[in-house]
Amino acid sequence: MTIVGNPFRPAAGSHGLLGRGPGRAVQPLRPDERIPVYRPYLGPEVERAAADALAVGWLGMGRLSRQFEEAVGERLGLVDRHVVSTNSCTEALHIAGRLIGLGPGDEVIAPSFTYVAGHQAITRTGAEVVFCDVEPANLSIDPARVEELITPRTKAILAVDYLGLPCRLDEILDIAGRYGLRVLEDAAHAFGSESRGRPVGSYGDLTCFSFGPVKMITTLEGGAVVTPHEQDVQVLHELRHLGVDSDTDARYRNQRNWEFDVVRQGYRCHLGSIPAAIGLAQLEMIDEFIDNRRLYCRFYDDAFRDLDDVQLFDTDWADVAPYIYVVRVTDPGRRHDLMRHLSDLGVATGVHFLGAHGFTFYADARRGDLSVTERVIEQVVTLPLHPYMDEGTLRRVVDGVRTFFGRDRLGQEATPR
Ligand SMILES: Cc1ncc(COP(=O)(O)O)c(C=O)c1O
Question: Domain for residue 124, yes or no?
Fold first, then answer.
């Protein structure tokens, strides 16, 4: 087997790391070390940024929070769009839902096949989720199934960019436009991905990102809402900070405003200065993280392409900022054994996702046909994907999968070059 399309070599002094960033303080995993699903990069650049921010002594939302929002906007190439940072994507989705007035009596059409954060953000407002199927190609909400679930109670659609693959947002926006609905885009997995040359976040209705512990970039915990409407910004600021009307500008100057009014029910989900500083340091490295993850996804794809036993996503990763690497086990009855086999070899795996329609809390939620969801929740396995990986680690994962299915290990000719 030959690995093709690999533009990177292990660089001198990189300890066998593949891709960019040989100067980073990344220790490759030892051959006997367990390979985790995630391994966020928290090197000296990140420590320095946190230490510098601590030295300033302004810990709460402040100048750095603002700088982080600006840097996010710049990274996404936003024009006439606004970034409001939060302490998680869950809260970003929650305040975006409040912004559009979600509440009791409303319905939001959402994929069952996503992390429960999205569903919880919706039901916290008192609105109900209506479960919709996903499409097989990208495991994102199927625009063809959305329309049949719309009722007079429908207020919004939740669209998710699964593992970094952009969903078919244009079709969803079109449906939403025809029925007067809003679209909450859960782009927790897709910071840095593009669709037809447009960065995710630059063309949606309300887009929410995650900067959680294991995401493409991390602020330890964090998130953001992107809105195209300037008038949303003030409301989001109030929602994010206890309904207070007028202290954001002062805080963005590391000051406090002691005269303010409280104008609505708000929450407390702003992004503090230390997380923002960490996010700024991470943003400096994001191109490297994305390039490397793409390289590793292609390495996996090339190594699995001859297996009938697993289904891969039909992408060359060129526009995708891959958050996780997922295969679908063709025979769902073998997924558990594959995961155990890999675990015995020291390779951790994950399952994204379980399907929220099976959760007790959502047992009564209205739902459409979920046949694709029912199938894929039994098939998906998440393999390790890190911002920096060495060849030995990738080969251990690949060989674990290949040997489980009775195939040969990866040949020497597969060495990326
Ligand atoms: C699809 C999806 N949406 C939302 C979230 C929640 O993000 P956060 O942890 O920042 O709240 C996650 C977390 O992994 C996720 O996978």
Answer: yes
Which of residues 225, 259, 284 is at a domain's end? 284
> For atom 16 of ligand 1, which residue has the closest CA?
115
Q: 367 - beta bridge partners?
A: 131
Q: Is 215 a catalytic site residue?
A: yes
Which run of H or of E encompasses 70?
helix 63-75
Q: Would you place residue 16 in the very low, low, confident or very high pLDDT band (cuts 50, 70, 90)?
A: confident
- Which range (9-23, 25-39, 199-213) has the least confidence? 9-23
Residue with tokens 């991390």: 218
pLDDT tens readout for residues 18-77: 898 867 878 889 999 999 999 999 999 999 999 999 999 999 999 999 999 999 999 999
Q: pLDDT-based confidence at 13, cuts 50/70/90?
A: very low
Residue position matching structure tokens 């391994």: 39
Within a domain: 409? yes
Domain co-membership, 273 together with 322? no
Residue 4 inside a domain? The answer is no
Final residue of a domain: which of 228, 250, 284?
A: 284
How far apart CA 368 and CA 361 sit, in angstroms, is 17
Residue nearest to atom 9 of ligand 1 (CA): 212
3-state secondary structure (DSSP) of residue 271:
coil
Domain count, the chain: 2
Atom of ligand 1 nearest to the CA of 215: 14
Q: The domain containing residue 165 runs over which residues? A: 45-284
Q: How far apart are CA 24 and CA 408, in angstroms?
A: 34
Q: What pTM value is reported for the model?
A: 0.95
CB 219 near ligand 1, within 6 Å: no
Other C-beta atoms within 10 Å of 1: how many? 16
Q: Which residues are 83's β-sheet partners?
A: 226
Give the 3-state secondary structure of residue 134: strand
pLDDT of 101 strictly over 70: yes
